[in-house]
Amino acid sequence: MPLTVNPLTPVFVAEVTGVDITSPLSKTEFAEIRAAFDAYSILVFPNQQMTDETQIAFSERFGPLEPTGKANPATGTVFARQSNLDIKTGEPIPADDRRMWYQKANMLWHADSTFKKVSSLCSVLSAREVPAEGGATELASTRAAYDSLTEDKKAELEDLIVEHDIVYSRGLVGFEYSPEEAAELPPNRHRLVRVNRNTGRKSLLIGVHAKEIVGWPWAKSRALLDDLLARATRPENTYRHEWRSGDVIVWDNQAAIHRATPYDTERYRRLMQRTTISYSEEMKAMESAD
Ligand code: OGA
Ligand code: MN
User: Fold this and answer.
1) Could you tell me the distance, in angstroms and rounded to a whole number, from the CA of residue 138 to the centre of ligand 2?
2) CA 164 to each of CA 17, 95, 144, 170, 252: distance values in angstroms, whole numbers, following the listed order
3) DSSP readout, 164-214?
4) DSSP sequence for the chain
5) Is it true that domain 4-279 has CATH number 3.40.50.1980?
6) CA-123 nearest atom, ligand 1
7) Is residue 237 lining ligand 1, measured as CB closer than 6 Å?
8) Are the CB atoms for 87 and 81 separated by under 8 Å?
9) Out of 11, 44, 139, 194, which could bridge 258 as a Cys pair, Cβ 3.0 to 4.6 Å?
10) CB 247 less than 6 A from any atom of ligand 1
11) 14 and 5 Cβ atoms separated by less than 8 Å
C-alpha cells in the first residue's frame, strides 16, 4: 500500500498510512513525510508499535534530538515520559504524589521547550499504554491563528520578541523554585512570528511559557498573549486526539500548541514516550533576532 496522507482537519492535521515508521525509511519515504509535516504541521501515524530504539531512529530523521534530564546531559536521556506509572515498579503513582503535578502542568496549552535557549522543531509522541477512557491530547494550530489575523495585526506582530520562562509558567500551577533552581532555568527570548523555511508559512510561538513581550508593559503584554492564545484555541483551530495504543503523533512546536486532558490516574495505566527534535542552529541562523 502506498504512503497516503489523509487530512483529519482541513488545514493542519493529517493521518499518514501505508508506511512503517518503526523500520528504516527510504529517502523518498522520509521526504514525503517531511513534506506532509510542512504542509500540515501535525501528523498522526496509527498502528506503529514503537520501541525506544525505533522511536529514536525515526525522530532523528527530523534533526538532532534534545537531551532531557537536568544539569548533566550525559546522565539524561532523550525521552520525556508522560505517564502515571512509577518508573521502577511500573505501578500507578498515587494521585496526590508530587510527581503527578508534572502531568497537571501539561494540561495547560504549550509548545514543548519554548523556554529553552534553542526552541524545538517538533516532538514525536508515541502511545505505549493508553487508558480505556480519558487521556486524550488536544492540539491547536498557531499557523491557522496567524492566518486569521488582519494584515495590520500581522505587521504589528512581525518584529515582536517574546520572553519564555518555565519558572513563570510552572509558578502558575503552584511549583516553587529555590533561587539556585531558578538560576538554572533562565528565561529565553524568541521571535513571536515563526517562518517555516520550506513553505514560507508563518505561525506564532506562544503557549503557557510565553511570559511577556520584550519592552511592553505587563498588562499590554498579557492582553496580547492571552488574545493570541484564545484565537489559536478556537474550535476551528483545534483537534482532539483520542489515543489508541500504537499511535504516534508528530507535531510542529513552531506552528502548534497542545495540552493533555485528565483521566483516572489511579484506575488506568498511561505510558507515552516523547522525543523532542531541536530547532537546529541552521534554522536559527536564518532568524536574526532569535
Ligand atoms: C508532551 C505532552 C500531552 C499528553 O508529551 O509534550 O504535552 O497528553 N503530552 O501526554
Ligand atoms: Mn508537551
Assistant:
1) 10
2) 36, 29, 22, 12, 18
3) E-HHHHHHTTT----HHHHHTS--EEEESEEE-TTT--EEE--STTEEEET
4) ---EEEESSSSSEEEEES--TTSPPPHHHHHHHHHHHHHHSEEEE-S----HHHHHHHHTTTSPBPP-SSS-GGGS-SEEEEESB-TTT-SBPPTTSTTHHHHHHTTS-B-TTTTSSS-EEEEEEEEEE--SS---EEEEEHHHHHHTS-HHHHHHHTT-EEEE-HHHHHHTTT----HHHHHTS--EEEESEEE-TTT--EEE--STTEEEETTS-HHHHHHHHHHHHHHHTSGGGEEEE---TT-EEEEETTTEEEEE----TTTS--EEEEEEEE--HHHHHT-TT-
5) no
6) 6
7) no
8) yes
9) 139
10) no
11) yes
| 257: its cell numbers | 500548541
- Which of 62, 166, 76, 46 minimizes the C-alpha distance to 124? 62
Query: Which residue is closest in CA terms to ligand 1's atom 4?
Result: 260
Give residue-wise pLDDT tens across range 88-138.
999 999 999 988 888 888 999 999 999 999 999 999 999 999 999 999 999
274 lines ligand 1 (CB under 6 A): yes
Going by alpha carbons, the residue nearest to atom 5 of ligand 1 is: 274
| Residues 188, 166: Cα–Cα separation, whole Å | 9
User: Of ligand 1's atoms, which has the minimum distance to the CA of residue 243?
Assistant: 8
Domain residue limits, the chain: 4-279
Residue 19 Cα to ligand 2 middle (Å): 25
Q: Mean pLDDT by 10-residue block, N- to C-terminus, for the chain (290 residues)?
A: 95 98 97 98 98 97 87 71 93 91 90 96 98 98 98 98 97 92 96 96 98 98 98 98 98 98 97 94 58
How close is the Cα of 57 to the center of ligand 1, in Å? 20
